[in-house]
Design goal:
This protein is mainly alpha-helical. The chain has 4 helices and 2 strands; from the N terminus they run H-H-E-E-H-H.
Amino acid sequence: MIFEHTIDDLAKLSGREMEHLGRLGTPLFKAKGADRFTPVDSAFAMAYAAKKAQRDSPAAQLFLFLRAFLQ
């Protein structure tokens, strides 16, 4: 599972090796100063994303929305 690896370990993997870790079934969060991602529930992930989005300008929010929408 991806959250068992440190970020340094993940950076060393090829794209193929990352694929073999499997799909993410839950949102992941990296706390400031942490060396790995930890699983979080969807409510936490959405609240955190909303809080971060409030800091951005409306133009930046629109850009991020459109980029996600068009992918």
